[in-house]
Amino acid sequence: MRPGIILKDDADLDYALHYKSQVEITLWGQVDYRGQLKGYNPDAVQAMSGDWYTRKVVEIKTV
């Protein structure tokens, strides 16, 4: 994936997980995590660090 693409749909997150894309999770305007995703569910995404982020609150984009 090209850098800067915002991941909103499950298909986008599936692609990022499958190809182990580097992502950036922005929480309240501040970058809180950079790296790969571990998983997701309809309400949240999980970073490799084990932290869960609510999908409605964060912006996830490719790096």
From TrEMBL:
Q: What's the name of the protein?
A: Uncharacterized protein
> Which species does this protein come from?
Paenibacillus mesotrionivorans
